[in-house]
Amino acid sequence: MSRQRRSGAIDTDSGTESGGARKKKASATQVDLSGFKALRSVMRIRPFRRLWVVTGVASLGDWLGLLATATFASAQVSGSAAKGLAFGSVIAVRLLPALVLGPVAGVMADRFDRRLTMVICDLLRFVLFASIPAVALFTEAPEITIGWAAIATFLIETVTLMWIPAKEAAVPNLIPKARLEIANQLTLITTYGITPVLAGLSIAALDRVTRAGGTTPPEWAEASNLALYFNALSRLAMALVVFVGIKEISGRAVGPRTEHQSMLRQFVEGWKYVGKTPLVRGLVFGILGAFAGGGIVIGTAQFFAKSLNAGDAAFYLLFGTLFVGLGVGIAVGPAVVRDLSRRRWFGMSIVLAGASVLVLAASIHLTMALLGALLVGAGAGMAFLSGVTLLGGEVGDDVRGRVFAFVQTAVRVVLMLAIALSSSLVGLGGSRQLTIADLGISISSTRLLLLAAGLFGIFTGISAFRQMDDKPGVPVLPDLWGSIRGRPLSAGEKFVPRGVFVVFEGGEGAGKSTQVTALADALRRDGHDVVVTREPGATDVGQRIRSLVLGRHSGAGLAPRAEALLYAADRADHVATVVRPALGRGAVVISDRYVDSSLAYQGAGRTLPVEEVSWLSSWATGGLKPDLVVLLDIDPRAGLERVAARGAGADRLESESVSFHDRVRYAFLDLADADPKRYLVVDATQPTGEIAALVHDRVGDILPDPPPPPPAEEVADALNTFAEADRP
Ligand SMILES: Nc1ncnc2c1ncn2[C@@H]1O[C@H](COP(=O)(O)OP(=O)(O)OP(=O)(O)O)[C@@H](O)[C@H]1O
Ligand SMILES: Cc1cn([C@H]2C[C@H](O)[C@@H](COP(=O)(O)O)O2)c(=O)[nH]c1=O
User: Fold this and answer.
1) In this protein, which residues make up the domain named Thymidylate kinase-like (predicted)?
2) Ligand 2 centroid to 535 CA: how many Å?
3) What is the Å distance from ligand 1's center to 279 Cα?
4) Closest residue (by CA) to atom 30 of ligand 1?
């Protein structure tokens, strides 16, 4: 059985109009999902708008706080080694709580009121952030100020671990599912694009202002202290806005509350859910793979810059480009892939990031490395956006907090391990120059690690894709390409054909009816269950359509598009009520004409865009393709003579010009050329018996031998509804 038929992908573009008209129509249907209007519509959701504003302010505060705590700690000691140690320790302390407390945080987010959890966490963070510079006001001892900065940072991070799952799990309840992606886009761009840059600029500006004129500011007015106070106040503001202004966060979308379960039980259930649900498993696997790869890129970045014979500036440039790519992926990705399945997009984005790491590994010049870094960032950004949106939109409310907590914990652990391991590993390996042609390529442990990271990224992307794919069997690249052009392929109708589908095609008078009958008789003699059918006109509706399109008087002025639609309508009814049921019961279905006739007559003959006629047919048939097409090829002059000899007069299409029929003939031949395995092209001027023997032989190759037993009686009864379609 042909694989194409089983896969049954359909191009779901919305019509046959061309150019601007189609674009207008497409954007009209997408207006609720993308673009500026979508942005406006999500901003109209009051609770989200408020949350977005305070999250932006708080995120600015957090980035300021991160920079400030680190610079604050190093400012308390002297000597570069001590400063470096102090700086590094504060950053490391921020990552530690995840190891112990991450999973518990998820249970809290699913167990307790999320709004109160957020408010209490923010009040605690307000106090803790403010306490860091405040303690320094009361003591001169650096061990106390640094010690407290480290303890406070640890506590802040612990509290943050509780806050994030509560917030992330609540957001999808505030926004309709269709708006979730744009809402996430907005939040991620604000949190990882705008506010870190603003924070860096603000802290530098603060430093300049407070030291203007060469004066040393009082300790409380140091830039890092002011930043920490701002951070504290932004958290207080967040607590107040969430408590007073976004009461909706307390609401639950679906599912029963789970307070009756013990915390331990909830914790175990959360892990089980992640392990057992293919979508979540795929997401988690993909996210972790991406972060592991990202960690290796970060861990090796400095050595990599050196391997390009570039200095520190190149390192920063690469790093900056990676973030630009991340932003581009998040901001532009959805507009590029349009209606591509988000599950597929997630896997593909990870594969893109992995493949781009390979570009990095193979870079022989800084420009190539920059391109690689840009694409790594773009892939990661798109994976991040689609991953978060999928988690928010497809994970049930009652377990969402635990899933987010699981992901955030695992991400931190994997990232830390990947950075630590890769940076120590690159230190161990040596580097030597290998000259290929005139290119000096540096093979070093850094590049080998990048190579491994890239391959690992591709592997995890593919695995995630496989686990989560919601369009199995639909070819990946045509689906991606179709989506970019606004014509995603939709999954074929769920249908497992048992029978075999043979179609006869050809011009007028080629001898199709004669050969259909001969083949059906021969196969019946061989013991096969055979259904003979045709287009147009195999069903009651089809009969009426046939008289509309072929009647010499009724359809005289029929517009080509109307003609194409009528044939498609006949086909849709024919496939749904005759062909699929017969194939489903295991019969051999022989049809006199099918999709190719539309491509040849309406496409080439009427000169409608063949691609669009093809889409129309794919949609009408739900992607059903024949196993074999027998093309009876004949010069139209000879074929039309045979028709005339029948003496019944020419129908509307037979009356078309010879050049029309020539175009039809060559279109049939082109189709056969493009897919030779699925076609048998026969010279239709041969004697009837010889043609019949050739066809019987070829069909024998694809038929089950011996013929399958007839279906059970009750199934046969059910299918008999369609048996009367065994005509023309
Ligand atoms: N191989 C052949 N050699 C000579 N004549 C043939 C051959 N096959 C069929 N014919 C004759 O040609 C005429 C058209 O045959 P047939 O109806 O089978 O063709 P068709 O392709 O189904 O036509 P249409 O396009 O009108 O449906 C008939 O009179 C038939 O007897
Ligand atoms: C299915 C199909 C058919 N046609 C044309 C081709 C013929 O001129 C008639 C069918 O007549 P026949 O005697 O049954 O062969 O319809 C078409 O133009 N487009 C189609 O999709």
Assistant:
1) 504-692
2) 7
3) 55
4) 511
508 alpha carbon – ligand 1 mean position (Å):
8
466 plus 611 within the same structural domain: no
The answer on pLDDT for 30 being more than 70 is no
> Domain check: are 574 and 693 in the same one?
yes
pLDDT of 21 above 60:
no
CATH code at position 104: 1.20.1250.20
Structural domain span for residue 616 = 497-725
What atom in ligand 2 is closest to the CA of residue 567? 21
pTM score: 0.65
**Helices (H), ranges, 575-724:** 580-584, 595-597, 610-621, 636-646, 658-674, 688-702, 713-720
Total domains present in the chain: 3
Residues with CB under 6 A from ligand 2: 508, 534-536, 550, 567, 593, 597-598, 601-602, 653-654
Ligand nearest to the CA of 634: 1
- Quote the ligand 2 centre to 98 CA distance (angstroms): 68
Same domain, 657 and 721: yes
Question: How many Å apart are CA 148 and CA 49, to the nearest integer?
Answer: 36
Mean pLDDT of 661-672: 96
What 3-state DSSP class applies to 217? coil
Considering the domain boundaries, does residue 260 fall inside one?
Answer: no
- Domain presence at residue 2: no
* Most ligand 2 atoms within 8 A of CB, residue of 533, 652, 653, 654 to mutate: 653
**Of 655, 591, 663, which is closest to residue 626 (Cα–Cα)?**
591
Backbone angles phi, psi at 259, to 5 degrees: -60, -25
Q: Ranked by mean pLDDT, which of 137-141, 446-450, 522-526 comes out on top?
A: 522-526
Nearest-angstrom CA–CA distance, 455 and 294: 12
Cα distances from 499 to residues 1, 588, 615, 629, in angstroms, run: 8, 5, 25, 15
- Does the beta carbon of 593 lie inside 6 Å of ligand 1? no
The ipTM is: 0.98
Residues 301 and 166 occupy one common structural domain: no
In the predicted structure, residue 307 carries a pLDDT above the cut 80: no
Report the nearest-CA residue for atom 8 of ligand 2: 653
